[in-house]
Amino acid sequence: MRLRRPATDPAAVHPVDRVPPPGRLAVYGMQHVLAFYAGAVVVPILLANAIGLDERQLIHLINADLFTCGIASILQSVGIGRIGVRLPLLQGVTFTAVSPMIAIGLAAGGGTQGLTTIYGAVIVAGLVTFLAAPYVARLLRFFPPVVTGTVITVIGLALLPVAATDAVGGANAPDPGNPLYLGLALGTLAVIVLVQRLFRGFLATVAVLAGLVVGTLAAVPFGLVDLSAVGESDWVGVTTPFHFGWPQFSLAAILSMIVVMMITAVETTGDVIATGEIVDRKVGPDDVARALRADGAATTLGGVLNSFPYTCFAENVGLVRLTRVSSRWVVAAAGGFMILIGLVPKAGALVAAVPHPVLGGAALAMFATVAVVGIQTLSRVDFRDHRNVVVVGSGLGVALFVTVQPDVARALPEWAGIVLGSGITAGSVVAIGLNLLFFHTGRRTAPAATTPDTVPFDQLAAAGPEEFAATLGRLFEGPTPVPSRVHARGPFPDATGLRAAVQDELFAAPAPEQRALMGHYPDLGGLVGAGGSGAPAPRRRDDAGPGGGTAAAALRDRAGLALFDHDDRTELAAVAGAYRERFGFPLIVCLRDAGDTRTLLATARRRLEHPPAQEHATALVEIAKVAGRRFDDLVSG
Predict the structure, then answer these.
(1) Residue from 272, 345, 286, 349 nearest 90 by CA
(2) Selected residue with higher pLDDT from 20 and 374
(3) Cβ(215)–Cβ(361) under 8 Å?
(4) Is residue 5 part of a domain?
(5) What is the C-alpha separation between 32 and 10, in angstroms, rounded?
(6) How far, in Å, CA of 510 to CA of 407, rounded?
(7) Which of 47, 315, 441, 574 is found 20 to 30 A from 470 (Cα to Cα)?
(8) Are residues 295 and 215 in the same domain?
(9) Mean pLDDT, to the nearest integer, of 340-355?
(10) Based on the domain organization, do 490 and 601 belong to the same domain?
(11) Does 405 share its domain with 519?
């Protein structure tokens, strides 16, 4: 009789769905707010200055923005029905909309008249996004790793100049030669790095918050922390629907904002996939559709509550990767804090007192981490195929061109300026367009060494014995007759039946055959011990052929090893060596189900005490987990 884990067993809950203790939940949530705050308020500031709003109107815009950001973040992370992706994604106003909104506002006469025309366009564009979400999500097949990796890398690299601008004093008063600004920015970055190096557990996960607090305290003696706005601000400020008047609807403005939202959908898709990679939760079309519905709903709500179009904030994607805190309830807590700050202008003024150089130093770490996630995704791309090189190189090149020379958009028509006004948008459009050109139009021949990321179930079911065995052989690290025996059991009604047959044949295989298969799996201790880098061991060329696991699957399975520090690697290598000596086969672990480093180490030590027969069965279960994960990645439909 098979025992089931109790529903209350924390190990049975994915880290994304776990709720941290109240104290940590509050601290983690506030860390997200501090990392997000500067980016949240810059859009209303830029817009208000451009269309001629006064200071009191600007304060109301900021309060409304924060209040709606909180609602949008809770909607995205917690979800309601089929709205919200339920990942740790924090929502903020998209920078892509700044230039078009300024153009709309000025064309309508500026001031509150221009603002109400902006809100009319925002409301309609949000509704269109909400309704179009499932159709846009069906285009996910046009976003293979070569595209998503490029988009995620572009997001990180294109945002680094924003961090650099903050680091030298902010857009309003930049002073690149100021040694104080440089010292605060680099000092904040150094604190973040040192906290992550010197501490473990909870303290390591609040490294960014520690850097912001230490940097702000260090700036106090130099007069860079201005708290005067705290005393001047009201205790309570409630945003009311249509505060500036009823929305005005202009067809040209609406079409412009719809274009902005479609471009923003590309950024959202990239952020959702990046977050899925970070927290080890597979993202599919339904997930993207739920995320886009949340964007649309939040954007429409923003138009009603005097705010603007919403998207996922890359700053906080980087924070999730940097801290390794993947609970979506942390983002929900951050949303709650933002709602409170939006209702209490004094609290918002206090958070706003963090100096620009300190924010810039923290943002350097977070934005660069987003780019690293993109590079990690690109590691699954076959660059032996020159077409992939062209897609990635052109996307990155155009993105950095526009980022470094933003004025190029001024010489273009307004519709083209919307696309080329942002390095993120320009690079994403180029990567998507070239992928369509090279892989989805005309003759689409690929090098013989290239293997598809997914295989439709119908195609696999109709394959001959050799092709069938070669394809399913990619589920395992070494040659095995299991796929051939599975083929002999066919036909199968669906992918679920095929998956079950693979598992059945694996467990029914003779013990010597199972033992031989175990010998082909990499030694976990060796993977983390070689050179102390935590990088995956090089794969032999023949590992990618029939009977071997694909390089892409192997990288996904082993990506978590890079999170081990030196002491953890040393300890795990020692345990794995003792394991192989005791049982005669490598320590096999499905890393995507292994939990954090502490849990993995504890499990490895416990397995070392098992009787040989029990450990043979345990190792086989881990192989089955890896095969199941790879099956989900490989077979579609």
Answers:
(1) 272
(2) 20
(3) yes
(4) no
(5) 24
(6) 68
(7) 441
(8) yes
(9) 72
(10) yes
(11) no
Residues 430 and 562 in one domain: no
**CB atoms < 10 A from the CB of 384, how many?**
11
Indicate the residue type of 404: V
pLDDT in tens, 127-151: 999 998 888 777 766 777 788 788 7
Copy the structure tokens of residue 8: 């209350």
Q: How many CB atoms lie within 10 A of CB 55?
A: 8
Listed residue (279, 288, 264, 268) closest to 373, CA to CA: 279
CA–CA separation, 589 and 607 (whole Å): 11
Cα(630)–Cα(554) distance, integer angstroms: 9
Residues 349 and 471 occupy one common structural domain: no
Angle between helices 111-137 and 22-51 (to 10 degrees): 130
C-alpha 415/C-alpha 437 separation (Å) is 22
Look up the CATH number of the domain holding residue 537: 1.10.3330.10
Reading the block at residue 409, the tokens are 């958009």
- Residue 111's nearest CA partner among 62, 51, 45, 49 is 51
Q: Are residues 406 and 435 in the same domain?
A: yes
* Residue 80 bridge partners (DSSP): 83
176 and 139, same structural domain? yes
pTM: 0.54
Radius of gyration of the chain (CA): 26
* Per-residue b or e along 473-499, where b marks 16 or more CB atoms closer than 10 Å to that residue's CB: bbbbbbbbebbebbbeeeebeebeebb
Domain of residue 245 covers 16-439
- Rounded to whole angstroms, the Cα distance separating 435 from 433 reads 5
> What's the CA angle centered on 574, arms 542 and 511, to 5 degrees?
50
Q: In terms of DSSP H, where are the helices of 280-353?
A: 285-304, 314-323, 328-343, 345-352
The residue assigned the tokens 């032996």 is 384
Dist. CA 424–CA 396, nearest whole Å? 9
> Is there a single domain that holds both residue 433 and residue 474?
no
